[in-house]
Amino acid sequence: MHEWALAEAVIEAAREESRKAGLQAVTEILVKVGELQQLELELFQSALDELANELSEETVLKHARIILEPEPALFKCRVCGREWAFKAANLRADEGEAVHFAPEVAHAYLRCPACKSPDFEVIQGRGVTIQRIKGTK
Amino acid sequence: MTVDPRLSVVAKRLADVKRIIAVTGGKGGIGKSFTATVLALTLARLGYRVGLLDLDLSAPSAHVILGLDEGVFPEEEKGITPPQVHGVAFMSITYFSGDAPTPLRGTDTSNAMLELLAITRWGALDFLIVDMPPGIGDAAMDVIRWLNRAEFIVITTASKVALETVKKVIRMLGELQKPVLGVVENMKLRESSTVLDALKGYNVPFLGAIGFDTDLEDAIGNVDALLETDAAKQLAGIVTGKLGFTKAH
Question: Which of A68, B63, B164, B226 has the fewest CB neighbours in a 10 Å radius?
């Protein structure tokens, strides 16, 4: 379960950020989840909730509501400028699994639909980022 | 705010790794991957628990030197566990990219390296050997920042062209106050003090030289044959000699 590893990262980062901000209790964490990484959202959510609760010695994240916000993946070709949306169905199962682990290897399997170039940019929807942490001081 | 959470977990992933040795050099083609791979294999044969991480994403090649079998893939268990390859826990982007050309720009390279560092569960290791991105560009600077406990071995050849860049790498590591275990001269063609002369004033140990080995190419991909080459034996001599890593089984 690769989702667990990323959930651990989110929880570690949320602890650091709440400490920096001087929060006594975190009430909400907004996590953007890029489509390209193809995380199983239910699995990711339950890993996050479990990890936040696990920190029994620290109460700072215990009552945090963790909200996942999916973000569609969009690409832009650096050669011809074409923009297009990611469709997981266009990848073989093994290619999809590889992109799930390391989204950048999309450059090995995807090509610009207009000019076939492998030189494209992931404009949005690459992976996991924390967008907001709310809490009380 | 936008926070990339992966950075926060890198130290935790490496918490049970005693020492991180990053093998670096100025240019491609000077034997950085050979040195990193054979260093990892040599330490494993000495009885240490060893990992090897190929972070040269523009030209990953440790898997070729190891002769990695097709179908070997990391196990997924709360992250990914690197497969044991010839006694070394080995992680590389090539598990995921296969042999397809994977053109990565600077940001992509940084993202892919950070992903590997964030999700790979190394477990308890005596050494993690890192095949660094060459030079002092974005990728190398990111790795130096993220692996803040790393100690460096710098590879060069006696070529003036290689030395020119290697001197900059050593100066840069010095300015960042990073420990340099020493410099290895690779592919030595003849007796000459060129490398030693070039290193005067840099205050880094010279670990030794590895001769140009015409048999090496035939042994690439065959670990047993590789470790029998003169080049590998000379490197093993540096490992147990100057570096002092001598643990017996």
Answer: B164
